[in-house]
Amino acid sequence: MIRVDVTLPGNRSYPVLVGPGASAHLAEVLPGRARRAAIVTQSNIGHAVESGLDQEVFAIDDGEAAKSMATVEGLCRSFAGWGLTRGDVVVGVGGGVVTDVAGFAAATYHRGVAVVHVATSLLAQIDAAIGGKTGVNLPEGKNLIGAFWQPSAVLCDTTALETLPEAEMRCGLGEMAKYHFLGGDDLAGLDLEDQIALCVGIKARVVADDEREAGRRAVLNYGHTLGHALEATGGYGLRHGEAVAIGLVYAAELGRALGRIDDERMAEHRRIVEGYGLPTGIPDDADDAELLAAMGRDKKAVDGFTFALDGPAGVEVVAGVEVSLVEQVLDRVR
Ligand code: GLY
User: Fold this and answer.
1) For ligand 1, atom 3, which residue shows the shortest CA distance?
2) Least confident of 96-100, 231-235, 294-298
3) Residue 269 catalytic?
């Protein structure tokens, strides 16, 4: 078992355990005062956990549609009906949808109850469950309601990945490709458990520097500006990780056009993304005008087009990128 600690301002920290059977350590990482554990999961996850406390399973619906205020209300009403108190604990068992919803319910129920995540998808293990971002969608957009609510611990059980559908695995691989450019140069040579731990460590350092995304944390969105735009404008049958993969290639092309990186670094982006078997080109039926409009609505957009871009000092957030260049570079990723 590999342990990575996420350290936060105010002498706060929590452990992330990575390895086969990590969920067997659940009882050890629960807050000492908790008497009840509300297990939030989805029926298709099928990952049983044993808290050693009085526990009850609360299943939410499958899919992104479950990330709603209605789901959170339903959960919190069920918690209240069961008698969950502020001293107890919520345990989210699943992928990113579960950890986002369980985390947000925990952040708001009784004004905040402890949460532990048992992450069962690659995406949740290397991204969603780490760093305390929680939230749900509105009809107007994804993740528009949420809270920063750090878990007490995260268990990344790699046995769960053995039965993870291929499409779900690809969802996480796009995020893993991203970490190559955030300091994970050595990722390619590692086995999966070490890859996950390295990604967690990279994310932990970024979150430690900027817990509430006042600045640097936005580098974790490297490749996501176009990635989110592809998802928002129809998805084109792409999984999140595939959209991010195309977004990484696009961000690299944009970085090269701005003189921030050279041809070799650009080629490296394509090589890494292709190495994970992920797509590198914008789908033919995606419309430039729609993609531009969606990129302009990105949450990071405070001053024109804003991107996380690679450069001599690594990935940084760059504001005020000219629309003509943003549009022109789309053609290079067709
Ligand atoms: N997924 C990006 C972040 O946690 O900040």
Assistant:
1) 220
2) 294-298
3) no
CATH topology of domain 213-332: Dehydroquinate synthase-like, alpha domain (1.20.1090)
In sequence order, the β-bridge partners of residue 308 are 317
Q: What is the pLDDT of residues 18-47, one digit of tens each?
A: 999 999 999 999 999 999 999 999 999 999
Catalytic-labelled residue, pool 56, 64, 193, 213: 213
Q: Which one is catalytic: 170, 178, 228, 260?
A: 228
* Domain layout of the chain by residue ranges: 2-205, 213-332
Query: Does the 2-205 domain belong in CATH 3.40.50.1970?
Result: yes
Cα(133)–Cα(309) distance, rounded to whole angstroms? 22
For the chain, give the mean pLDDT: 95
What pLDDT was estimated at residue 136?
97
Distance 203 CA to ligand 1 centre (A): 8
Contact indicator for 144, 138 with CB cutoff of 8 Å? yes
Active-site residue, 110 included: no
Please check whether residue 17 is in contact with residue 155, taking contact to mean a CB–CB distance below 8 angstroms. yes
Residues 6+ apart with CB under 8 A from 102: 40, 75, 90, 91, 92, 94, 115, 117, 134
**E strand or H helix at 162, and its extent?**
none
- The pLDDT value recorded for residue 303 is 57
**CB neighbour list of residue 308: distance below 8 Å, 6 or more residues apart:** 218, 219, 220, 221, 222, 223, 224, 225, 251, 300, 315, 316, 317, 318
Distance 81 CA to ligand 1 centre (A): 33
Do residues 229 and 295 lie in contact, with contact meaning Cβ atoms separated by under 8 Å?
yes
